[in-house]
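User: Hi! I'm working on a homework problem where we have to compare a predicted structure to a textbook description. Could you give me the structure for the chain below?
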Amino acid sequence: MAILQISEPGQSPLPHQFKKVIGIDLGTTNSLVATVSHDGSREGESPVVINDAEGRAMLPSVVHYTNDGADFVGHQALALAAEDPYNTLASFKRLMGRNIDDIDDLQQFNVVEHNTATEQADATAIIRLATAAGHITPLEASAEILSSLLATAQARLGGSIEGAVITVPAYFDDAQRQATKDAAHLAGVNLLRLINEPTAAAVAYGLDKADDRTVVIYDLGGGTFDVSILQLSDGVFEVMATAGNSSLGGDDFDLVILKWALAGIECVADDLSPAEYRGLLASARQLKQQLTDREVETIDFFCANKNYQLELSRDQFNDLIMPLVNNTVDVCRSSLHDANLTPSEIADVVLVGGSTRVPLVQQRVEELFQQPPKIDVDPDQVVALGAAIQADALIGNSSNADLLLLDVTPLSLGIETMGGLVEKIIHRNTSIPSSRAQEFTTYKDGQTALALHVLQGERDLVEDCRSLARFELREIPPMVAGAARIEVTFKVDADGLLEVSAQEMTTGAAANIQVKPSYGLAEDEIANMLKASYSHAQQDRDARMLAEQKVEAIGLVEAVKAALLLDSDLLDKQQLAKINNGIDTLLSDIDTDDTSIITLSLASLSRETEAFAVLRMDQSIRKALQGKNLDDVVE
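Assistant: Happy to help. Predicted structure tokens:
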């Protein structure tokens, strides 16, 4: 009889066989795919970028569409960008999971009617772009890039790819992360997990193997910026703080150069054809790249059937982009404050993203953190290399399998309670994956359903936070107000996606929702929400106190009115008049929006009803004892 064999956990059945996995950096301007090369042993691990058949590492994140579909992807598509702009989609990562109102610069896209909103009450339609192949979503365009990278990996590694880790900006919200996961599914990629780009960069630098230290990852790519502060200890990556802007990057540097050029040659952007606009953007990008190594550069700009030759110095360029670079520095300072750290406590600063090649960026980062930043690994490749290392660990090939990544939630998550208040359940900068539960109860007697409103933000009032989803819990047994026990649980998975569930504890009645909003946060919205939480702190405390007092006042009024309907005969006319007068006064004072006045009226009505409460309790006791002797009561 043959003996059945079982392989070691996480390893291939045959020794020195390794599963083929990849790491993908799905970028705004360029994308890359990488893998870990093994020399036959687990000690010979080396992450490498996978080049295409022409030996190119980077694939431009550009897709050209014809009547037959996505005809060209990457370099061939980029060559057609100026010639056929509306059928050639570029920089669409900035549109992933977003709404048209979130995007300032849509000139290079032919935006059409949105699709219908999802069933979520606050969801808004996804952007669709008109092309020769029909209406294309940014998700579908991203899937084409992922498909091309997957095909390159399969061709170069030989055979099927068993899994992939895809990187996303740390500040991607639920909608943007879900859109990335959906794009991977559409492309046929077996997604092992999403990983934040800054964390991937730290892995690529081998900082997980260094002594305990705190590091900053400054990531400025083509379309997004984020900064993360990581605490590294024994292979554990804990994100202490993260912040950023999902609509700030090198593309914005190109745009300010373009605006400068148009002002100099007295051309109006609205008068440009789409082809001219794309061509001028390409010239602006070329000028930016040349100023990395040169102090002054001259370039041709073709506009309105005329050719203009413009000269731009690096100092002029620095002046143009200074507000954008200072924006990133301010975000870094805010992150240090969130992590309760000073620049001197940072051991390493790692630069990620092609836009960090700009000398002014390196200069400002060095000034803030008081040390030269690390640029040893190609900033364009470092994220893909880190993703490959993580993929190798997750599939069981790597000796880094014990690497633990603890990312965080960028904003607090909670639900709406009575009075338009937000009760935070998972606070910002909480390590994920995470699960938190909190008990709530009903507001009215006999309430058999609960409306749950999921929110994101730092303020205390619903109107100042972002709505994510709504759902209902039904079949709650009718009880007096406050008697029901409803446990609400928030679960954020390793990819930062949220699931909310609610359960009534006595019957087990339950409801849940996966929060997949159809669009992300608007440009600068996260930063503005955080700033507002600080600048309006006292205002929010006052507003919460006022709302809580109003809820308590209305609850007392309703309770007293219900008691009077049943037992007003226990009171004489004078007592009844005082209580009714107290009710009227409290209801009138609620409209004053003065917390101190409401508090005084609330206390007054409570005093007026104390004797009434005693009378009702005595009556209840008498009814309970009626017809019973002393022995029955004792028993």
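For your comparison, note the following. The radius of gyration is 30 Å. The first helix runs from residue 75 to 79. Good luck with the assignment!
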